[in-house]
Protein backbone atom coordinates (compact mmCIF):
# COMPACT_ATOMS: atom_id res chain seq x y z
CA UNK A 1 0.00 0.00 0.00
CA UNK A 2 3.07 2.24 0.23
CA UNK A 3 2.91 3.62 -3.37
CA UNK A 4 -0.70 4.76 -2.86
CA UNK A 5 0.11 6.28 0.56
CA UNK A 6 3.02 8.21 -0.92
CA UNK A 7 0.81 9.65 -3.67
CA UNK A 8 -1.98 10.62 -1.25
CA UNK A 9 0.53 12.11 1.20
CA UNK A 10 1.27 14.82 -1.36
CA UNK A 11 -2.27 16.12 -0.88
CA UNK A 12 -3.41 14.85 2.53
CA UNK A 13 -2.06 13.85 5.93
CA UNK A 14 -1.73 10.06 5.76
CA UNK A 15 -1.36 7.53 8.60
CA UNK A 16 -0.82 3.82 7.88
CA UNK A 17 -2.30 1.74 10.70
CA UNK A 18 -0.81 -1.68 11.40
CA UNK A 19 -2.97 -4.50 12.73
CA UNK A 20 -2.59 -6.76 15.73
CA UNK A 21 -0.01 -9.44 14.88
CA UNK A 22 1.94 -7.47 12.25
CA UNK A 23 5.63 -8.31 12.57
CA UNK A 24 5.25 -9.18 16.25
CA UNK A 25 2.69 -12.04 16.39
CA UNK A 26 3.38 -12.91 20.03
CA UNK A 27 3.37 -9.34 21.34
CA UNK A 28 -0.24 -9.40 22.52
CA UNK A 29 -3.49 -11.41 22.54
CA UNK A 30 -4.86 -12.76 19.28
CA UNK A 31 -7.78 -11.01 17.63
CA UNK A 32 -10.72 -13.35 18.20
CA UNK A 33 -13.05 -11.45 15.85
CA UNK A 34 -12.94 -8.66 13.32
CA UNK A 35 -14.34 -6.27 15.93
CA UNK A 36 -11.09 -6.63 17.92
CA UNK A 37 -9.16 -5.12 15.02
CA UNK A 38 -11.81 -2.41 14.61
CA UNK A 39 -11.52 -1.46 18.27
CA UNK A 40 -7.73 -1.29 17.91
CA UNK A 41 -8.12 1.21 15.05
CA UNK A 42 -10.54 3.31 17.12
CA UNK A 43 -7.89 3.44 19.84
CA UNK A 44 -5.23 4.53 17.35
CA UNK A 45 -7.52 7.26 16.03
CA UNK A 46 -7.97 8.52 19.57
CA UNK A 47 -4.25 8.37 20.39
CA UNK A 48 -3.44 10.39 17.27
CA UNK A 49 -6.11 12.95 18.15
CA UNK A 50 -7.79 12.59 14.75
CA UNK A 51 -11.31 13.93 14.33
CA UNK A 52 -13.37 11.61 12.12
CA UNK A 53 -10.60 10.77 9.61
CA UNK A 54 -11.15 9.32 6.16
CA UNK A 55 -10.48 5.56 6.34
CA UNK A 56 -9.24 3.48 3.40
CA UNK A 57 -9.10 -0.31 3.66
CA UNK A 58 -7.93 -2.94 1.17
CA UNK A 59 -8.94 -6.63 1.28
CA UNK A 60 -8.61 -7.77 4.93
CA UNK A 61 -8.04 -4.14 5.90
CA UNK A 62 -11.25 -3.29 4.06
CA UNK A 63 -13.18 -5.80 6.17
CA UNK A 64 -11.71 -4.14 9.27
CA UNK A 65 -12.72 -0.72 7.91
CA UNK A 66 -16.29 -1.92 7.31
CA UNK A 67 -16.50 -3.30 10.85
CA UNK A 68 -15.05 -0.05 12.18
CA UNK A 69 -17.63 2.09 10.38
CA UNK A 70 -20.46 -0.11 11.67
CA UNK A 71 -19.22 -0.35 15.25
CA UNK A 72 -17.98 3.23 15.66
CA UNK A 73 -19.52 5.48 12.98
CA UNK A 74 -18.71 8.53 15.12
CA UNK A 75 -14.99 7.81 14.60
CA UNK A 76 -15.08 7.73 10.78
CA UNK A 77 -15.51 10.69 8.43
CA UNK A 78 -15.58 8.72 5.18
CA UNK A 79 -14.84 5.25 3.89
CA UNK A 80 -13.00 3.91 0.84
CA UNK A 81 -13.07 0.15 0.27
CA UNK A 82 -10.95 -1.82 -2.22
CA UNK A 83 -11.24 -5.56 -2.84
CA UNK A 84 -13.99 -6.05 -0.25
CA UNK A 85 -17.39 -7.71 -0.04
CA UNK A 86 -20.03 -7.94 2.66
CA UNK A 87 -19.48 -11.68 3.18
CA UNK A 88 -16.27 -13.25 1.97
CA UNK A 89 -16.77 -16.54 0.14
CA UNK A 90 -14.42 -19.39 0.98
CA UNK A 91 -12.57 -20.65 -2.09
CA UNK A 92 -10.52 -23.79 -2.69
CA UNK A 93 -7.39 -21.62 -2.93
CA UNK A 94 -8.03 -19.84 0.38
CA UNK A 95 -8.90 -23.12 2.14
CA UNK A 96 -5.72 -24.83 0.94
CA UNK A 97 -3.61 -21.79 1.81
CA UNK A 98 -5.05 -21.63 5.33
CA UNK A 99 -4.50 -25.34 6.00
CA UNK A 100 -0.90 -25.18 4.79
CA UNK A 101 -0.16 -22.05 6.83
CA UNK A 102 -1.68 -23.64 9.95
CA UNK A 103 0.08 -27.01 9.75
CA UNK A 104 3.41 -26.63 7.98
CA UNK A 105 6.21 -24.24 9.02
CA UNK A 106 7.34 -22.63 5.78
CA UNK A 107 10.61 -20.91 4.95
CA UNK A 108 10.40 -17.23 4.04
CA UNK A 109 9.57 -16.65 0.37
CA UNK A 110 8.00 -20.10 -0.05
CA UNK A 111 7.06 -20.84 -3.67
CA UNK A 112 3.70 -22.41 -2.82
CA UNK A 113 2.48 -19.41 -0.83
CA UNK A 114 3.96 -17.02 -3.38
CA UNK A 115 1.71 -18.60 -6.02
CA UNK A 116 -1.26 -17.74 -3.80
CA UNK A 117 0.02 -14.16 -3.50
CA UNK A 118 0.38 -14.00 -7.29
CA UNK A 119 -3.42 -14.38 -7.56
CA UNK A 120 -3.54 -10.78 -6.33
CA UNK A 121 -2.28 -9.63 -9.73
CA UNK A 122 -4.43 -9.49 -12.88
CA UNK A 123 -2.49 -12.15 -14.76
CA UNK A 124 1.22 -11.51 -15.14
CA UNK A 125 2.48 -8.54 -13.04
CA UNK A 126 3.63 -5.46 -14.89
CA UNK A 127 7.19 -6.01 -13.64
CA UNK A 128 9.24 -8.45 -11.58
CA UNK A 129 9.96 -5.61 -9.15
CA UNK A 130 6.25 -5.11 -8.54
CA UNK A 131 5.71 -8.82 -7.91
CA UNK A 132 8.63 -8.92 -5.49
CA UNK A 133 7.28 -5.87 -3.65
CA UNK A 134 3.91 -7.58 -3.04
CA UNK A 135 5.52 -10.84 -1.90
CA UNK A 136 7.92 -9.07 0.47
CA UNK A 137 5.10 -7.10 2.08
CA UNK A 138 3.03 -10.25 2.52
CA UNK A 139 5.92 -12.11 4.14
CA UNK A 140 6.30 -9.36 6.73
CA UNK A 141 3.31 -10.98 8.44
CA UNK A 142 3.95 -14.26 10.29
CA UNK A 143 2.28 -17.26 8.65
CA UNK A 144 0.31 -18.06 11.82
CA UNK A 145 -1.19 -14.56 11.63
CA UNK A 146 -1.98 -15.05 7.93
CA UNK A 147 -3.85 -18.26 8.78
CA UNK A 148 -5.84 -16.62 11.58
CA UNK A 149 -6.80 -13.71 9.36
CA UNK A 150 -8.03 -16.08 6.66
CA UNK A 151 -10.10 -17.72 9.39
CA UNK A 152 -11.58 -14.38 10.41
CA UNK A 153 -12.50 -13.66 6.80
CA UNK A 154 -14.29 -17.02 6.56
CA UNK A 155 -16.65 -15.95 9.35
CA UNK A 156 -16.93 -12.30 8.29
CA UNK A 157 -20.48 -11.31 7.35
CA UNK A 158 -21.95 -7.81 7.65
CA UNK A 159 -24.52 -8.18 4.85
CA UNK A 160 -27.49 -7.72 7.18
CA UNK A 161 -25.95 -4.64 8.83
CA UNK A 162 -25.00 -2.57 5.79
CA UNK A 163 -28.24 -0.58 5.92
CA UNK A 164 -26.97 0.91 9.19
CA UNK A 165 -23.93 2.53 7.55
CA UNK A 166 -24.14 6.31 7.70
CA UNK A 167 -20.70 7.16 6.35
CA UNK A 168 -19.90 8.55 2.86
CA UNK A 169 -18.51 5.48 1.09
CA UNK A 170 -16.55 4.82 -2.10
CA UNK A 171 -16.08 1.25 -3.32
CA UNK A 172 -13.32 0.59 -5.88
CA UNK A 173 -13.37 -2.80 -7.61
CA UNK A 174 -10.75 -4.23 -9.95
CA UNK A 175 -12.38 -5.56 -13.11
CA UNK A 176 -9.95 -8.53 -13.07
CA UNK A 177 -10.04 -9.26 -9.34
CA UNK A 178 -10.05 -13.07 -8.98
CA UNK A 179 -10.25 -12.97 -5.17
CA UNK A 180 -13.38 -10.81 -4.86
CA UNK A 181 -15.09 -10.51 -8.28
CA UNK A 182 -16.03 -6.99 -9.28
CA UNK A 183 -19.73 -7.95 -9.39
CA UNK A 184 -19.70 -8.68 -5.66
CA UNK A 185 -17.92 -5.41 -4.90
CA UNK A 186 -20.54 -3.58 -6.96
CA UNK A 187 -23.24 -5.37 -4.96
CA UNK A 188 -21.56 -4.18 -1.75
CA UNK A 189 -21.79 -0.56 -2.91
CA UNK A 190 -25.44 -1.02 -3.91
CA UNK A 191 -26.26 -2.26 -0.40
CA UNK A 192 -24.64 0.73 1.36
CA UNK A 193 -26.89 3.83 1.47
CA UNK A 194 -25.49 6.56 -0.79
CA UNK A 195 -22.30 4.66 -1.66
CA UNK A 196 -20.54 5.22 -4.99
CA UNK A 197 -18.96 2.40 -6.99
CA UNK A 198 -16.14 2.80 -9.50
CA UNK A 199 -14.52 0.00 -11.51
CA UNK A 200 -10.76 -0.06 -12.00
CA UNK A 201 -10.45 -1.41 -15.53
CA UNK A 202 -7.77 -4.07 -15.84
CA UNK A 203 -6.92 -4.04 -12.13
CA UNK A 204 -6.69 -7.10 -9.92
CA UNK A 205 -7.09 -7.46 -6.17
CA UNK A 206 -4.14 -5.14 -5.51
CA UNK A 207 -5.26 -2.40 -7.87
CA UNK A 208 -3.72 0.24 -5.62
CA UNK A 209 -0.31 -0.98 -6.86
CA UNK A 210 -0.96 -1.45 -10.57
CA UNK A 211 -3.42 1.48 -10.83
CA UNK A 212 -2.09 3.81 -8.14
CA UNK A 213 -2.74 6.93 -10.22
CA UNK A 214 -6.41 6.11 -10.84
CA UNK A 215 -6.99 5.03 -7.24
CA UNK A 216 -5.40 8.27 -6.01
CA UNK A 217 -7.64 10.29 -8.35
CA UNK A 218 -10.79 8.51 -7.20
CA UNK A 219 -9.92 8.81 -3.49
CA UNK A 220 -9.03 12.50 -3.84
CA UNK A 221 -12.33 13.17 -5.65
CA UNK A 222 -14.22 11.28 -2.95
CA UNK A 223 -12.59 13.30 -0.17
CA UNK A 224 -13.29 16.57 -1.94
CA UNK A 225 -16.95 15.63 -2.30
CA UNK A 226 -17.16 14.68 1.37
CA UNK A 227 -15.49 17.92 2.43
CA UNK A 228 -17.81 19.96 0.22
CA UNK A 229 -20.95 18.23 1.50
CA UNK A 230 -20.00 18.91 5.14
CA UNK A 231 -19.18 22.60 4.66
Note the topology.
Elements: H1 2-9, H2 34-47, E1 54-58, H3 60-71, E2 78-82, H4 92-103, H5 111-118, H6 128-139, H7 143-155, E3 169-174, H8 182-191, E4 196-200, H9 207-210, H10 212-230
Parallel strand pairs: 1-2, 2-3, 3-4
Q: What is the fold-level CATH name, i.e. the topology?
A: Rossmann fold
State the end-to-end CA separation.
Answer: 30 Å
Low-confidence runs (pLDDT<50, min 5 residues)? none
- SS element count, helices: 10
- Average pLDDT score: 79
Question: Roughly what fraction of the amino acids lie in strands?
Answer: 5-15%
Number of strands: 4
Please tell me the CATH architecture by its name: 3-Layer(aba) Sandwich
**What is the alpha-carbon Rg in Å?**
17 Å
Biggest sheet strand order reads 1-2-3-4
The CATH superfamily label reads Alpha/Beta hydrolase fold, catalytic domain
The CATH class label is: Alpha Beta
What count of domains describes the coordinates?
1
Largest sheet: 4 strands, parallel
Helix proportion: 40-55%
Secondary-structure content class: alpha/beta
Element string (H = helix, E = strand): HHEHEHHHHEHEHH
Shape designation: globular
Give short descriptive properties of this protein.
231 residues; 10 helices; alpha/beta; Rossmann fold
Quick summary of this structure?
The protein is α/β, with parallel strands linked by helices and 231 residues long. It has helices at residues 2-9, 34-47, 60-71, 92-103, 111-118, 128-139, 143-155, 182-191, 207-210, 212-230; strands at 54-58, 78-82, 169-174, 196-200.
Amino acid sequence: MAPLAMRLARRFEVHICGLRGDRFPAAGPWAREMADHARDVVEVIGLLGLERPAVLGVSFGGAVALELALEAPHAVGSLTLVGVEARFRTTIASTIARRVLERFPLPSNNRFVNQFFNLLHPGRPESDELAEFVVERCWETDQSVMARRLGLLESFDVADRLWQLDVPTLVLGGSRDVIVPVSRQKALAAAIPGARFEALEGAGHVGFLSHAGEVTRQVAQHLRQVRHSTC
